[in-house]
Amino acid sequence: MSDLTKLADTVFRGDFGSAGQITKELIDSGVEPLTIINQGLIAGMDIVAPKFKAGEMFVPEVMMAARAMAVGMEV
């Protein structure tokens, strides 16, 4: 699993504790910030949206995913 895929999965799971750490590691390894945003953070939320629409995820889980994305954006 690539680090960007790992970040997307972290956002999807709402693991905001790891989202910032993985984002920082990606930045430190030279990955462009826009790539991190598009292929990591937004990609994770792209998994959340259809699951929420299908009733497979609920508001608290969506909020946790959004918080994980926000933590990644703060880095």
UniProtKB/TrEMBL annotation:
Species name: Desulfitobacterium hafniense DP7
PROSITE patterns, per database record: B12_BINDING_NTER
Domain of life: Bacteria
InterPro entries: Cbl-bd_cap, Meth_synthase_dom
Occurrences of domain B12-binding N-terminal (ranges): 1-75
Taxonomic path: Bacteria, Bacillati, Bacillota, Clostridia, Eubacteriales
One Pfam family matching this protein: B12-binding_2
The protein, known as: B12 binding domain protein
